[in-house]
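User: quick one
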Amino acid sequence: MIRFDSDYMEGCIPEILEALSRTNSEQTPGYGEDVHCDHARQLIKDACGNQNIDVHFLTGGTQANMTVIASILKPHQGVLCAATGHINVHETGAVEATGHKCLPLPSKDGTITAAQVEKAVLDHINDESFEHIVQPGMVYISFPTENGTLYTKQQLTDLYETCRRYDLPLFVDGARLGYGLGSKQNDLTLPDFAKYTDVFYIGGTKVGALFGEAVVFVNDRLKKDFRYHIKQRGGMLAKGRMLGIQFEELFTDNRYFKISRHAMEMAELLTDALKEKNYEFFYAPQTNQLFPILPNEKIAELRKQFSFHTWCKTDDSHTAVRFVTSFMTPKENVDQLINAL
Amino acid sequence: MIRFDSDYMEGCIPEILEALSRTNSEQTPGYGEDVHCDHARQLIKDACGNQNIDVHFLTGGTQANMTVIASILKPHQGVLCAATGHINVHETGAVEATGHKCLPLPSKDGTITAAQVEKAVLDHINDESFEHIVQPGMVYISFPTENGTLYTKQQLTDLYETCRRYDLPLFVDGARLGYGLGSKQNDLTLPDFAKYTDVFYIGGTKVGALFGEAVVFVNDRLKKDFRYHIKQRGGMLAKGRMLGIQFEELFTDNRYFKISRHAMEMAELLTDALKEKNYEFFYAPQTNQLFPILPNEKIAELRKQFSFHTWCKTDDSHTAVRFVTSFMTPKENVDQLINAL
Amino acid sequence: MIRFDSDYMEGCIPEILEALSRTNSEQTPGYGEDVHCDHARQLIKDACGNQNIDVHFLTGGTQANMTVIASILKPHQGVLCAATGHINVHETGAVEATGHKCLPLPSKDGTITAAQVEKAVLDHINDESFEHIVQPGMVYISFPTENGTLYTKQQLTDLYETCRRYDLPLFVDGARLGYGLGSKQNDLTLPDFAKYTDVFYIGGTKVGALFGEAVVFVNDRLKKDFRYHIKQRGGMLAKGRMLGIQFEELFTDNRYFKISRHAMEMAELLTDALKEKNYEFFYAPQTNQLFPILPNEKIAELRKQFSFHTWCKTDDSHTAVRFVTSFMTPKENVDQLINAL
Amino acid sequence: MIRFDSDYMEGCIPEILEALSRTNSEQTPGYGEDVHCDHARQLIKDACGNQNIDVHFLTGGTQANMTVIASILKPHQGVLCAATGHINVHETGAVEATGHKCLPLPSKDGTITAAQVEKAVLDHINDESFEHIVQPGMVYISFPTENGTLYTKQQLTDLYETCRRYDLPLFVDGARLGYGLGSKQNDLTLPDFAKYTDVFYIGGTKVGALFGEAVVFVNDRLKKDFRYHIKQRGGMLAKGRMLGIQFEELFTDNRYFKISRHAMEMAELLTDALKEKNYEFFYAPQTNQLFPILPNEKIAELRKQFSFHTWCKTDDSHTAVRFVTSFMTPKENVDQLINAL
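Assistant: Done. Structure below.
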């Protein structure tokens, strides 16, 4: 069985395993205050082209999302997001469990626009019952989105400007950030995220690490006391160096970008093959998550050899499915899938 | 600098690193539903001598504590614990952040008694304002305690019976469980914990793993839907197999017990040396955390070579310190410390 | 200015003022444990034709909603409701502040159906990522709805049966219960609510009282310890008798039903007049909240004499407005409005 | 049976009942935005000698405490208070239910000192594990305390200065503020509270009203959006004027102070009689709560005619009890109690 279910099916880049072995008997302080975390933070600052950011390492995406959001909002505030956003759909109410409502905006492809954010804020301000309604307190977007789509630089800067105008911190969930940056269709850079957001995270779990996300605070006002929040929400690893070591390896020799590019090359091969066979896509194929629409018999046939998610029926005889490539996807696997298509 | 600060200063047992390398290119489902997690669960059931337990893997102690406690209590209930308990002191209010009060009971050495629990429950029931007071809803103890001390089998079964009488789930924080089980002074076994508690966890982070705790539900009534809680509290690792692989290795060939015993041998060497030199102990030396009382000049001298925590002043010229050995502490390090004492 | 804004614009029925004066110097125990509360609870049991219910008095609707919901749900559960439901829209995230997500179902007129509830539950159960999604844990409906519409007996019993099948407590927000019961179009009785729900509340604030809601627990399993929850959520009045006295007066001589009927007669007069003038309604006029669609110039004209809410634009020259009658609305006021129309 | 149990056993001052009748048919906007609330706010500003305060009306003490505290603290912060403080003992964990730990300081008589607050803050800052410990985020005191004792002006200003130094908002629970102000032993004024605190509340429930507390924000930085918090926590009365009308009456003609003085005269009569009979007091008799130590037989005898709380055993034959006078206590009742003593 060859798996295209998701990008968290395998382990990590070999350099991480080597580094874990090499450093195993070192004695270091705990809780992220060791030399490896310090070094990884510096490498990320360099890659972001911004020495003024704060970098923290957390163990997973849901944890990063809820910890960041809960650290920013006041009790009466909620977080604007796409209705399809991970926090609104697939985190078992983690944000609500910290006391805050997700404020979903309609979205066809996973993205939301500056105009939608502005309208939501103005609708709130202009509602005569405004104090009876959750106040929009920040904006959450995913890059790439849960549907594999991207924001352009223009879209991101528009959102950021709107957020500035209404004093709303902009938070980017970058669980698959590498794959977004590595897409040919992308015009954003890592330094752009360290400029046009208030806080974002660089996903490691799905991009080369065993686990771990690097949360980057850009806005000075939000930085204070974040380590307390990490500890309170259960995200502070005693052997914090496990995260430092992994991000050290990912951000050495541009590996984070190279392995992301590999996943994208695999996705591009697959996209080209699907297009050639005249399959349509449910969402525009922009990153490592592809949503082709296949005939049901074809799906049944593929299932004998491959595992992948079905997304939704598109008509009685067709279904959109999801194929995901990763930093470790071998070209042979993609070739086999292409042959089987 | 040789570190006796804590038991999370080094990496993990070498078998874990080997297994991570060996399994790195395997493709497995995520979120703890892979073969390694399944196997690790079976190994733990076997080690517990109880096939009816539920085993879940979480990434850290604070996370395990808050997730378990929040899954059990109703909103108006709190958790009885030693005033010195980790949840009451060193988790940045993680339990309160889930809406529940810690109900601290006085403790000299980190333990609490069945009689204290019973009194707390009866005081609550008999208070005419009982509905205005947080209701005791469960009991939390640590084994070993934060002060390195142990419960005897009699003390644990007394607590368990009292908890049964008043319908209070008993939860044991086993962050350092191995070291408690490996102590010469201990008369409890792992199967005892799978019999005389409602839920407990087997600490991996401090006992041989890179990170990870195995939460064991003994009481059927508490098992339902726990995976939702793990996800909601940010503890569900996408590459869940990272935890399964680690506990597979720890519970193969009795490694968990052997490495714990090693730490205890190192602690016993040190204890004997300290006793020989007539140093007194602030808490009875029972596990891998030792709290000798040293002259302040001696401490200053040791600091040049060793790092360790000071605990509290005992008089103007003496201070209790904490030395902690781990599964990886080399005998040379202990010898050097003994020589320096 | 004559106000048709809402049903909470005036004071209370005169009998309550008399009773407050009559009892003012009595000394009674606090927190709802006085003779007036006891008597009121008995009157409500009698009116419900069910001696097995538990009755509690809270001070307002949002408080009743959040206290009941938080007392029922487990942390990973949410509450199914109409997207238009008060808890989802107009309570500043009170439910989320207790840690739970509102799970909105689409609704045109404020009602939801048994089929929608069943689909939501099955969708959840059948989702392969179910543990990553908030679990439906109960159902909330409003009777009458926020749009002035009603459930029929068939619709309520269908919902109740579906809730039974999937073990979901059914909670009815009865902030305006009297007006629903007093509608000519209604076929439900108070005893029906004490039979086909798990918990509901009888609104006092909008139906004759100065303030106060009577929460009625029908389902034995949900009754335990509710007074703790009231206290914890800030709803337990020290001079609890204020609530008992009010419900004593409301449930003496069928006053609750008589005054509700008065409001409905006023609403019916107005409905008839609006229909006669060929105005259309945005929602079916069933209770004391009427949503006629008026020409914008007519609205501007009415505003000189009357205050009321605009609901939404229906086209460039028309707007739906809301007129609300209450237990105290004088017929002269309605006549004046009819004349002005 | 004559009750000295508490100061919430009777109704309200007659002027409130008259005003409720007089205003009953008025139509006013809801949620505290009516003319009576506006007028009451102005009267309180005048009484506080501070036109820059914000005044909000809530329905009860627990609600006021939890709403204010939750509006101020960030998730990782707790509230310093006396171990005996109402929020720590008698509010069913309402503060914890909003996610925050109460940080109790030892207290013999219900008061805490500026030195204690400073030590708690410094202990936190200087703890090497500070990020693992709840951060002190504000200070809560009660005036008078739960033990009937008072802070002097010097003690209050010391606390306030310490709070300023460490950027900790100081919140005063004034559930019985009137009785504190009305004590002969008191040297503080209402304007002092509007100067030397950040936020406090003027208790109505126990001092002349049917129910209601007036929360006063002094510190500009804390004022923003408080009405959202009131709504979210269930404290916003639809017929908000009920609270406005009551505080209008209490703050007209100095009634709040006159009725408080009456309660204190009754308490002073009783105190003098108790002293004359050589009874000792468990806490210094300073306000309307008196804690004399009585022989057990005397208590049994009194119980036939009077109801009151026992506080605690002081030796085998003596018990401290609590007698409470109120704004409505008739002199005859006190005379009868004195005769019976």
